[in-house]
Design brief:
SH3 type barrels, 9 helices, Arc Repressor Mutant, subunit A, elongated, 328 residues, 3 domains, seven-stranded mixed beta sheet, alpha+beta
């Protein structure tokens, strides 16, 4: 969609009734023929626009894609999402965001795709990213904090997503699975991938990638037992633009607070309340060892606290967590 078409769409979006072609000509400095071409382009992209002789044009249906003009009405942020890039399809929103950040894109820049060909989760796993149903986006951050604090962002983002879902998808009660997932009824609903680009003691930028299964009605067979979507859990379709904006609204507030704090203590009660792993016996797979123990909480730095069989408390900063049966 070109810039003029986007501006005409935004104008139609806020109009309460028909908007005359003459008014659009005058406002954008173009001919009636040019207005008509832009209307046709918008229709070709899925927007329902009525036209009536002597009355003009009226927008009667949006696409439901998370494009800026559809996200903007729901945004309450000062910065997050105000610089916005949308791709119908891309390899990975994280890769696109990294390229933009390398070129100096401002903090709060958002990259959204309707589909990804190379979506990734943690540990290099593929993230299934079909078009027309889910939400895939990345956010550029430039936190002026010690690099050692940056991993805390993963949990902070998970809190923002959880808060957004409790508003958008009520009465669904999702849970936070340390360190980066949102689950619903025991199945994965959302994942977060934070990638930091830094030197020792200097963080250049962080790219936060988020994938949320929203309106997906048919998951691949191999994912039936482990993944779900908002639609599968509730039987309702959801607005992807509204969900994206709601996540950004919540996260901007949390992020600004976090920058002023020393750690995650201000959100630990919330994380503990909605922790999927609370009091569970788990195994944590790391590159060269496997830890086992009962989860006793989350530390102020974001580490998972495990009580081992001998009663010692172990702080786990990374690893793949699975709920296990306790060996007696």
């Amino acid at each position: 969609m070109n810039n003029v078409s986007s501006q005409i769409l935004a104008r139609l979006l806020i109009a309460k009734d028909f908007l005359s072609g003459e008014e659009l000509c005058r406002e954008f400095g173009i001919t009636r023929s040019a207005v008509w071409k832009h209307i046709c382009l918008l229709r070709s992209e899925g927007y329902s626009i009525n036209s009536a002789t002597n009355r003009g044009y009226r927008l009667i249906g949006l696409t439901g894609r998370a494009v800026y003009v559809e996200v903007k009405p729901f945004l309450e942020t000062l910065r997050f999402g105000r610089n916005f890039f949308y791709f119908p399809i891309t390899n990975s929103t994280n890769l696109q965001a990294k390229m933009l950040a390398d070129k100096g894109a401002i903090e709060g820049t958002v990259v959204v795709a309707d589909a990804q060909t190379g979506g990734r989760g943690r540990m290099g796993r593929a993230w299934v990213s079909p078009s027309g149903s889910n939400l895939y986006f990345s956010l550029i951050l430039r936190p002026e904090v010690p690099s050692i604090r940056v991993p805390q962002l993963t949990l902070l983002v998970a809190v923002a997503i959880h808060q957004a879902l409790t508003v958008i998808a009520y009465p669904l009660l999702p849970m936070i699975k340390w360190p980066n997932d949102i689950f619903a009824n025991g199945k994965k609903l959302c994942g977060v991938l934070c990638e930091m680009y830094s030197e020792p003691d200097l963080t250049h930028f962080v790219v936060v990638g988020i994938g949320i299964n929203v309106n997906h009605s048919l998951l691949p067979t191999e994912l039936h037992a482990s993944a779900t979507s908002l639609y599968l859990e509730t039987g309702r379709l959801f607005s992807r633009p509204e969900l994206l904006a709601t996540v950004l609204n919540h996260f901007e507030l949390l992020y600004q607070t976090w920058l002023l704090k020393e750690d995650l203590r201000f959100v630990l009660p919330y994380i503990e309340k909605y922790s999927l792993l609370k009091s569970k016996f788990v195994s944590v797979e790391q590159c060269n060892r496997c830890l086992r123990g009962t989860v006793t909480g989350i530390a102020k730095g974001g580490e998972l606290k495990l009580e081992s069989a001998d009663g010692q408390i172990v702080f786990v900063s990374s690893g793949e967590v699975r709920i296990s049966k306790k060996i007696t």
